[in-house]
Design a protein that fits this description.
By secondary structure, the chain is α+β, with helices and mostly antiparallel strands. It folds into two domains: 1-47, no CATH class; 51-166, Jelly Rolls (Sandwich), CATH 2.60.120. Helices cover 16% and strands 36% of the residues. Strands 1, 2, 3, 4, 5, 6, 7, 8 and 9 form a nine-stranded antiparallel β-sheet that branches.
Length: 173
């Protein structure tokens, strides 16, 4: 079995991934060819991602709030499937405005603190605290005075598959 990416695909990968991630995709492809497996088959190859090498995204669309994030695991960026994982980052008092989406979501606090309001009920988040957000639940986040970082996980292959539907301004319970 031979797996090849045309020049346009490789050029696209290099624009969305740091050089070390592009090299990782090439390495995984070579390994897949050697074992005759798909390079993006579920759980076919272990990999690691250094958060510090990933770009900070977001923070520019007022519909979202001030949240920024780093996408760690996503099928269009890593040799993975069936799961998206990222790191949300908020400055002091930062926000992710109230919204809904079909997939359930899990947050895990890693730094700072804040409040996640889910269907009108406030939940504290801080290092070591996990918060489960059910499918279609309205939820939003406000960071504490020291800011907030949490890991988020969706049961989707790609972040782009999560359809965020933001609530009316100020509607968070």
């Amino acid at each position: 079995m031979t797996i090849e990416f045309d020049d346009d695909v490789m050029a696209g990968l290099s624009t969305v991934m740091p050089d070390d991630m592009t090299a990782l995709v090439e390495e995984v492809t070579e390994a897949a060819e050697a074992t005759e497996q798909s390079p993006l088959a579920p759980s076919s190859f272990p990999f690691s991602v250094d958060t510090a090498t990933l770009p900070l995204e977001g923070g520019t669309d007022p519909a979202f709030g001030t949240v920024m994030w780093r996408t760690l695991v996503c099928a269009d960026r890593t040799p993975s499937s069936d799961m998206v994982m990222g790191l949300a980052e908020f400055g002091p008092g930062g926000t992710l405005l109230p919204h809904r989406h079909a997939p359930a979501e899990v947050y895990y606090g890693v730094e700072g603190s804040g409040t996640i309001t889910i269907d009108g009920e406030a939940h504290h988040i801080a290092p070591g605290i996990a918060v489960f957000v059910p499918s279609e639940a309205e939820h939003g986040t406000v960071a504490g005075p020291e800011g907030l970082k949490f890991v988020y996980v969706f049961p989707n292959a790609r972040f782009a598959e999560v359809d965020y539907r933001f609530s009316a301004a100020g509607a968070q319970g």
